[in-house]
Design a protein that fits this description.
10 strands; six-stranded mixed beta sheet; four-stranded antiparallel beta sheet; Rossmann fold; alpha/beta; 8 helices
């Protein structure tokens, strides 16, 4: 389980996160919802070690990882699919996938066949450059690259952004399958409540750097949730 306790984050004098707390257990999707600019991506970067917290504590499977650098968190199975995908445009699809080998022992540095079972389109594109793929194909590549790292906590930042509906459905099916195995915690940032509702077991809603509503999805009032997401 991931536990975030009372986390503050500052960018200079600006306070981006204010006493944020949440948990993300294995075998579940925990979805962070909120309008643009409320601190969702900042929270994910804190979890992945890309920003140092000003206060608070982060634990993963009982270990305090608050001060660990990003690569140490990756070695513990915390893998991120960032907003905008961040594939390497001049590397081939295969080379992009192989960048996930960095945290693995040498004997495990291979691309599992399951990656192509989950994302069949990538099998025929291994020699194409990442920058030549469509946005939806790049998103599939970014998730596949993270899965090669054998994640125990998969962090997804708005995977539906700018993606055509058919690929959104494919990504939703993959997330559902990964969740159902019970081996992985999934932390998902989304703006679209309908997508989150199909996948999430619990929801955290943020506003102005704070958690304003949280709990199991079935216990929350849908109208209240939608009101907090309306611009």
């Amino acid at each position: 389980m991931l536990t975030v306790e009372g986390v503050d984050l500052h960018y200079g004098a600006a306070r981006a996160l204010k006493q944020v707390s949440l948990t993300a257990p294995r075998g579940a999707v925990t979805c962070i919802l909120g309008r643009n600019g409320v601190g969702k991506t900042s929270l994910l970067r804190v979890v992945c070690g890309q920003h140092k917290v000003s206060a608070g504590r982060i634990t993963w499977d009982g270990e305090d990882i608050t001060t660990l650098p990003p690569w140490e968190r990756a070695r513990r199975g915390i893998c991120s699919v960032p907003q905008g995908r961040d594939v390497f445009p001049l590397l081939t699809v295969q080379e992009n996938l192989e960048t996930g080998f960095g945290v693995l022992p040498r004997r495990e540095r291979r691309i599992p066949n399951e990656v192509f079972d989950l994302f069949p389109v990538l099998r025929g594109m291994l020699r194409r450059r990442g920058g030549d793929l469509s946005g939806g194909q790049q998103q599939q590549l970014a998730i596949a690259r993270a899965l090669i790292m054998r994640p125990k906590l998969l962090v997804l930042d708005e995977p539906t952004e700018g993606i055509q509906p058919s690929i959104i459905k494919d990504i939703g099916r993959v997330i559902t399958l990964l969740r159902s195995r019970g081996e992985m915690a999934i932390l998902l940032v989304e703006q679209y409540f309908d997508f989150a509702r199909e996948l999430a077991q619990s929801v955290v809603i943020m506003d102005r750097g704070e958690v304003v509503l949280a709990g199991p999805l079935e216990q929350l009032d849908e109208a209240d949730v939608r009101r907090r997401l309306t611009v």
